[in-house]
Design a protein that fits this description.
Length: 202
Amino acid sequence: VITSGMGERWGKMHSGVDIGASRGTPLYSYLPGKVHQTGKLGASNDGGYGNWVTWKDDKFNAYHFFGHMNTQSPLRPGSKFGNKTMLGTVGGSGFGNPNEYADHLHWEISNLTPDSMGNFRSPSDPITWMNKNFTDSGNVKPVNVSYNIPRGQRKRNGPLITYIPVPIEKPTPIPTGGSMSSGSSRGSSLNSIVTDVSTAYT
């Protein structure tokens, strides 16, 4: 679920998009690239984002940021990886506390090199960036979003987005004529790795 968009929020600029997901949900690359930097919870470069990773993609030469992860990225700076590679998992880390926030991904994209804390000087709206660069995928569909999306991003049918870097959890349907089962199943588009966010809404 997209819980907050890019724009002014609570009197301050929110420089990325927040995506709510269960702790431990894998975060995957949606392009091949190389790890640029990593941040560690409680270290000098925590910066409020706890465990984080920045990576540069090989196709557009843009930088991508995943913040508030549950643990450090399994990859190290300089590591090269392909599309659909797990770069970390969803968490709520920040300011030295693994439970500083409700579990979610803070996601940013920029064409400029980030500083040593992973901050982007001129971030792009990830929703706009993905729609612009992935329109030839044929997977752009309208998305319902939460009320926290800034007014400037509101559209009649919600913003359009191609892929997001986390699978979306969907409730298990109640079988016809049977009892309700527990648990959940995950969306499975794009080989169950990068899920079209519209599958979360029916």
